[in-house]
Amino acid sequence: MRIIGIALCVTILFSSCSQQEKTDKYDHLDSRTKIRLQQYLAAGKQLYNLHCANCHQMDGSGLAKLYPPLKGADYLITNRNASICGMRHGHKGGVVVNGITYEQEMPANLKLTDLDIAEIATYVYTEFADTVQIVTINEVNSIMALCSDDLSK
Ligand code: HEC
Does 74 sit in the ligand 1 pocket, CB within 6 Å? Predict the structure, then answer.
């Protein structure tokens, strides 16, 4: 009985801890930013599921050697501009993600507006790269102006 009691306490403790961590992730944001982030995340998730998940999967884990993962991908952090450019212009020439080489081509999606990409990038960076950030329309706009024809660089 006592052991069960202790186990129960530990379980409750742990679950309240992980709940805590979840809210903590956004705690440093002021309430206006938090609301904006939530709006971006909701819209970004829908757009991601529509335009990206068939290859990168809903959970961002990618697909075998064909489609690279976004979840935990070092490439998102080390090649931020190329990642965001690629969301509109596609990507070819291969990428190395977490030490694994992928060589399929990612098709362009020229219909995505700066707002669409801002929302998708906010979702991808917050959900999959474990950062908390709003990628703004202005930032997307200035990154798009830098996109080179050769996005493998
Ligand atoms: C038809 C399949 C397909 C779709 C749809 C697709 N991608 Fe990709 N994506 C790829 C492939 C293949 C690569 C690797 C490209 C290369 O090797 O040059 C890639 C690479 C990437 C990369 C850089 C590598 C990494 O894993 O970080 C990012 C970021 C990315 N895609 C994000 C997206 C987002 C966001 C969308 C939706 C707007 C999207 N992709 C839609 C297939 C796809």
Answer: no
